[in-house]
Amino acid sequence: MRTHARPWWQRALLTREMLTILILVAAWVVASAVVQGFDGPLTITYLVLDVAPVLLIALPMTLIIATGEIDLSVASVVGLSSVTFGLLHQAGFGLWVALPASVLLGAVCGAVNGTLVAYGGLPSLAVTIGSLALYRGLAVGLLGTTAVTDFPESWTDGATENLGESPWPVVTLGLVVLIAVFAVLLHATPFGRNVLDIGRSSEAARFSGVDVKRTLLVLFVLSGAVSALAGVYYTLRYGSARGDNATGMELQVVAAVLLGGVSIFGGRGAIHGVVAGVLLIGVLSSALRLEGVTVNVINIVIGTALVVSVVAPRIAGGLRVRRRPAVGQGS
Amino acid sequence: MQNAAPTLRLEGVAKSFGPVAALRSGTLVVQPGSIHALVGENGAGKSTLVKIVGGVHRRDAGVVELDGEPVDFTGPAEAKAAGVAVIHQEPASFPDLTVAENIYLGREPLGRFRRIDRRAMRAGARELFRDLGVDLDPDRPAEGLSIADQQIVEIAKAISLDARLLVMDEPTAALSAVEVRRLFAVARGLRDAGRAVVFISHRLDEVADLCDTVTVMRDGEHVSTDPVAGVTADELVRRMVGRAVSDLYPKVPSTPGEVVLRVEGLQSTGTFHDVSFEVRAGEIVGLAGLVGAGRSEIARAVFGVDRYDAGRVAVDGRTLRPGDPTAAIAAGLALVPEDRRLEGLVTESSVARNVSAVSRRRLARLGILLPDAEARLARDWSGRLAVKAGALDAVATTMSGGNQQKVVLAKWLATGPKVLIVDEPTRGIDVGTKAEVHRLLSTLAAEGLAVLMISSELPEVLGMADRVLVVREGRIVAALDRADATPETVMRAATPGASSERGDAA
Amino acid sequence: MTALTALLRRREAGIALALLVVIGVTTAIQPGFLLSSGGWRDLLLTPAILVVLAVGQAVVVITRNVDLSVGSMLGLTAYLAGRLFIDVPDLPIVVVALVAVAAGAVLGLVNGSIVAFARVPALVITLGTLYVYRGVALTWAGSDRIDAGDMPRAFLALGTRQVLGVPVLTIVAAVVLAVVAYYMYTSRGGRQLYAIGSDPDAAELQGLPVRRRLLGAFALNGALAGLAGVMFAARYGTVSSGAGVGLELQVVGAVVVGGVAIFGGSGTVVGAALGAMLLLTINRALPVVGIPDFWQRAVVGALIIGAIALDRVLARRRSHRLAAERDTDQPGGAGPADREEATP
């Protein structure tokens, strides 16, 4: 039997992810041609710095949505980790202690979500709406309306400076490494296969001996830890630890992931598509901003893109009904 | 009455799902005032035909007429409005609504201001249940009803529609003898009132008892229609199967070895109780019983996907951790589950990914799973089982039921199991593949595999098994050797109300 | 089981009890919380808007959907109402309110049509329209802001007026609650909404008008968000483009706390309304018992998680009880009639 029904180039090019990549390239080309100042080196620098937190969080979010679950508490974890980082610094701990401590706290936040969802059998949507309020509430409660801002310059500069003379910020290296790690995890390990199987049919996965609960727990812990890392970055990038940092970012992350071709039903998704989805939102935002368009219009664009990205494949697929496949054709 | 137009007339009705032709040429003529049996093996296309009549599916080709008028239902509501009531095989109840609400949903009796008259609704449900001779509380939520009770609710719903055509798709599979008798009385009442009834059942004795006409289907096509009095049961079976029964079950003789699987005192509240049995190497043990008797639940608990409250499962003398399929797999258990599309396969995934699903961890090198290793395993096993697919990356949804089942078997055989549990291994697959599956199971047993087979097809159990355990209402009520197992002994043990004291109660 | 114990066993009774405890404890610490005229008024007035939103959201959630765009719909309709007062000065207040309600219904209908016809998850669609509706409001309003001076005094009076000691807005919320609760319990349509949420596939198989019902649920939710927008303008006397930002989480939280299952099919609008009252009353009670209001959100979050966990435990217990009942109450147990039947 043949291994593949279609030649390799078709399998590589005719994908949902390619569509997002194409739109990204087109947006880039159009913006460079039309928008004044878009093709300058500063665009790349700010693009990377701005999208970094969303990009980071989008990686574990891809895996979570691929299982058919969701984590809406990520932006609140960013806020809580930012506050923790700031408070530990204020209390005189070195940042090399504050950083891992904040990430650890994020992992604990994720473990709480994951335990409730996986072992408590609670719907992730409801649980993480609750923990969105809870973690944000803790962040705001701990720091009130004040902010911690006196971070050492060596750290805040590190978060924004470029690699030598290039337009690429140093954080690009970290992003690339994490993207690679998550891509391998999802696409080339038994764990990643299990993740997709759970999203397609968690019953079938369970009957194949996949530990669905543990897999979900691991994913939520990852999501919490990476969100906390993004929180530390966010704090250093803006030099300010505040309880309301990154409020509402969860919606941007989910939008980017879905734009990147991950199915909200679970079972389908690829890291390269998600990276393209995040960058697409970033490019549109910075191009429109350079054009003097307000953030409002950008929101309309993102919102519409999100709706279209979900509706379009359904219409293209001839409105195939997603039914319980078991409604028998036999006997 | 025979001169009037038939209540229902289907001719040459066809329906395909993707590449799978579920119904090639369905023909059925049902007269008013008649109870018409529709028989055929699983996969013969009966349920598809019923779903077309009930407006669930739209036909691809052919004629459907009600009282001489051509109809083309685009949805179940239209069929209902046209006077067609269908009791589907899978009861579709709403767990959050009460029993009475389930029966009257969408056509509740209304009082003043179009307000639902709950008292009338409750009284109506009570009356329906009285006619059916069951004691069900109309105010109880449908959640947690047994399959038999859910089926009763479906029947009550269909009867209350007061339809001109009532179609019952295996309504008796989960019912007790008393309930079946009451249902038959209701059906006869409808017949005498000039309504038409279509009755689908695997039990030919029921067909002979209730129906006046019988239509046989095979492989999605009409085979014959006769008055019930004019054909013998043996003749019907021959037409359904298309060949003599003995050809179908190529039993390879084998000598049972050591006990591999031992189950002791297994219990799950509300489902099964005190279940003990063992399966030896090289032996096929059949688990027979009515639908809903708890056979699949026992298999699931043994394999670990369901928990149990008490008891012990051991493979090769080592006790398994309850509720842990991973441990069960490591110990050498494999389960080909009842619902292939929901539990057996990830239907959206390719052949290669499905075949390698359980073996992934073993295939990975340093944690990395290369597509090559996956493809090699999949090619090897799909070759051995003669899986027919366009390519290894063909998605399982596009395959026929028989090929899907081979993929499930390949997935489990690739793990090198010691005990293979198969739950309805040939449900909904074509006759040819069916024989292949039987031959495979026989050969595997001969090679020393311990096989536990659950099947609702009595000939399959009797043809394949070395020993037959009969489950009734969650208990093993009989253990029969191959020589003692006949349709009569098994059915008597399996049917609630039959004298279980007689015979070889375990 | 008598009618009284049945009533007390309901999930709503638990929330009502919790509400009473919160009010009682807080009043014991600071009597003015309930026993002053201002305290009494705030107790009733504060939750009015959230109650209206929670009732609409509950109807949507019961169908196994969700509408996250409520905050944006409220913002847009509140601004629309304010704009009408400025641009068409002579328009009667009732007409303005009706226009806002109709506008809300249209926005809700847009959500509902996409969900019902493209069969895509409401979560994603309404997340998208949350952005879009808010963006439209921001673009339309810009940094403009409608102040009390722009709106008729009679309208603003509605926000504070009381009839027989009950604020007008509270009366509006109570009427909305009563009408919707009556519909959900006593009409065919209401029961079908429950059926759809209980098992959408079975609902299709039964031939229920699933699409029409979903459109109705979303339109109702939108209309109530529009009404809440008008109430918002009257209550606060000032509307900017940011009105109602982040409200969706409070609304969904209230619904969940009120015992409406997020996966549809169960719960009542009364419960959702009680959930809304509980959330906001706790918010106001916190400073009284000495917890800074910075911690309000954390308490709300803990409450939401606690409520869904509790519901889960109760559901498990119920299904275990039903399974045990089945054990003792087997259908067709071997009675004499059976035996006679079984002899061939």
Compact summary:
The complex is a heterotrimer of chains A (331), B (506) and C (344). Chain B is an alpha/beta fold and 506 residues long.
Keywords:
heterotrimer, A: 331 residues, mainly alpha, ABC transporter involved in vitamin B12 uptake, BtuC, 14 helices, 0% strand, globular, disordered C terminus, B: 506 residues, alpha/beta, Rossmann fold, 3 domains, 6-stranded mixed β-sheet, 18 helices
Would you kindly provide a written description of the structure presented here, covering whatever features stand out?
The complex is a heterotrimer of chains A (331), B (506) and C (344). Chain A is 71% helix and 0% strand. With 331 residues, chain A is mostly helical. The longest helix of chain A has 27 residues, at 212-238. Chain A is globular and about 65 Å long. Mean pLDDT of chain A is 88; it is low at 319-331. Chain B folds into three domains: 8-93 and 145-242, 3-Layer(aba) Sandwich (Rossmann fold), CATH 3.40.50; 243-332 and 417-506, P-loop containing nucleotide triphosphate hydrolases (Rossmann fold, 3-Layer(aba) Sandwich); 350-416, no CATH class. Chain B has helices at residues 46-53, 76-81, 99-104, 118-132, 147-160, 177-192, 204-210, 233-241, 295-303, 325-330, 340-344, 351-355, 360-363, 371-384, 401-413, 431-446, 458-464, 487-494; strands at residues 8-17, 20-30, 34-39, 61-66, 69-70, 84-87, 165-169, 196-200, 213-218, 221-227, 259-268, 272-280, 284-289, 310-315, 318-319, 333-336, 419-423, 450-454, 467-472, 475-481. In chain B, strand 7 (165-169), helix 6 (177-192) and strand 8 form a beta-alpha-beta unit. The radius of gyration of chain B is 24 Å and the shape is globular. Chain C has a single domain (3-321), classed as ABC transporter involved in vitamin B12 uptake, BtuC. Helices cover 76% and strands 2% of the residues of chain C. Chain C has helices at 3-9, 11-29, 32-35, 37-45, 48-62, 70-87, 93-118, 122-141, 153-160, 168-186, 188-198, 200-205, 210-236, 247-257, 269-288, 296-328, 336-342, and strands spanning 145-146, 162-163, 166-167, 239-240. Chain C has a two-stranded antiparallel ribbon with strand order 1-4. In chain C, helix 5 (48-62) runs parallel beside helix 10. Chain C is globular, with a radius of gyration of 23 Å. At the A-B interface, helix 9 and helix 10 of A face helix 1, helix 10, helix 11, helix 13 and helix 14 of B.
